[in-house]
Design a protein that fits this description.
globular; 2 helices; single chain; 2 domains; Lipocalin; 8 strands; alpha+beta
Length: about 140
């Protein structure tokens, strides 16, 4: 019985490592292409702890990362369509906690600041400073 447990634990670790390598290699290829294009907008937000989101727009493409105190929790990349103050995301790849999230967002303004919020979050305006992503200006953008 102990041998089965050891084999199960080792098999699980190998599966996790292989999955991480495969996901990482997918994004390395996309990153190399995207670094050649200039970001037109960068939005960031979160609580500074477990939920920190960053959306980078360039051309008709976007990249979203979700990270926190334990590292990267998820990532999504693809194309987007912006109409007035609404953005619809069409992901090509999704991983981790970004799978099936943020299909549409909208821009709201409060006290001179623009925020990007999830259209499915009914309470986003109540806690805008945490739930909304702020648009970075050119000097705030970090690559």
């Amino acid at each position: 019985m102990e041998n089965r447990i050891i084999v199960f634990v080792i098999s699980s670790l190998v599966a996790i490592i292989v999955s991480s390598v495969l996901i990482g290699s997918t994004f390395v290829a996309l990153d190399s292409v995207q670094q050649q294009e200039r970001f037109t907008e960068v939005w960031v937000g979160g609580d500074g702890l477990g939920v920190n989101l960053k959306i980078e727009f360039f051309g008709k493409k976007y990249r979203t990362t979700w990270d926190g105190c334990l590292g990267e929790y998820g990532r999504a990349e693809g194309e987007f369509v912006k109409t007035e103050d609404h953005i619809r995301f069409n992901p090509k790849t999704e991983a981790g906690m970004m799978k099936d999230r943020f299909r549409a967002m909208r821009v709201v303004r409060k006290e001179g600041q623009e925020y990007l919020i999830d259209v499915d979050d009914e309470n986003a305006l109540d806690y805008l400073e945490i739930s909304g992503l702020k648009k970075l200006n050119e000097s705030e953008r970090v690559r």
